[in-house]
Amino acid sequence: MKWKLDRHIGPAASARRIRLIARHTLGAALRMRLTILLGLVAAGLVLAALWLREFNFGTAEIKFIGDFGLGAIGFLGTLLAALVTAHLFFSDLAGGAAPCVLTRPVRRWEYLSGQFAGVAALLALFTIALGLLLGALLAWRAAELGVGLPDAAVFLCAGGVLWFKMTLVAAMTLLVCSYAGTALFASCAGLLLAMVGHLRPMAGAGSRLAWLRVWPDLSLFDAEAMLAAAQAPGGGALAGVAFYWAAYVLLFGALASSAFRHREF
Question: Per-residue pLDDT tens for 66-96?
Fold first, then answer.
C-alpha cells in the first residue's frame, strides 16, 4: 500500500491520516486467516442453535436461539478483538510498516487511533454480518412456529452493545501492545483484562476485589439481558452506556499514546 500522507497540520489533516491508517488496518485484517476462521466458527455456532434447541429445558425456542446466538457472537468477537489487534500491531512493527509511517508527519497517537478505527470497523462488519444471519434464523423459525419475533429495535440495540464491548476489549489490547514485546503476550493480556472486566460486578466496596472497581464493567454491555427484557432501553440509558464506553476508550487511548511515545524501534 502506498502511503500518501500530507504534511499539513490541523484536525482535517489528522482525520485524513487516521482514515488512511484505518483503511490499511481494515484491509490487512480482512485478509487474515484468523478473521475468516473466527467468522466461520461464529456463524457455525449461530446455526448450531437450531440443533442445540433439542437440549433446551423449558425456555422458549426463539429466546434460546437469540440468547445462544448473541452469546456466540460476543464470545468470538471478544477473541477476534484481542487476537487481531495484537497481530496487526506487531505485524506492522515486524514488517516495517509502522516505522515507515512514523518517519512521515504522523503523530503516534494518530497511528494508534487509525489502528483502533480499523479494528473497530472490522468488528462492526463482524457484528453486522452475524447479526443478519441470526436475524434471518430467528425470522425463519418464528414463521415456522407461528410466534412473534423480538422487536427490531431491541435486536439492533443488542448488536450495538456487543460492538461496544468488543471495541473496548480492542482498546485494552492496544494499550498492552503499546509497551509489550510480543503479540502472544499482548493478546493473552487483552483477554485476561476482558476477563477482569467481567469480574467487575464482584468488586464490592468491602471485598478483596475492591481494586477492580477502577476497571470498566463489561457486564454493563449485556446484550442477552437486553433481548430477554424484550424492550429497548431508553435514550438516556443508551447515552449513558455510550458515554461510559467513550470515556474508557479515550482513557485507554491516552495511556497507550503515552506509552507508545516512548517506544523505540
Answer: 888 999 999 999 999 999 999 999 999 888 8
Dig out the grid coordinates for 103 from the structure.
Answer: 518517519
Residue 40 makes CB contacts below 8 A (sequence gap 6+) with none
- pTM score, whole prediction: 0.89
Eight-state DSSP code of residue 189: H
pLDDT in tens, 198-249: 887 776 655 666 666 778 889 888 887 877 776 767 778 888 999 999 999 9
The answer to whether 218 and 200 are in contact (CB under 8 A) is yes
Residue (of 19, 99, 12, 265) closest to 4 by Cα position: 19
Residues constituting the chain: 265
The amino acid at 131? G
Instruction: Classify residue 146 as left (phi > 0), alpha (psi -120 to 50) or beta.
Output: left
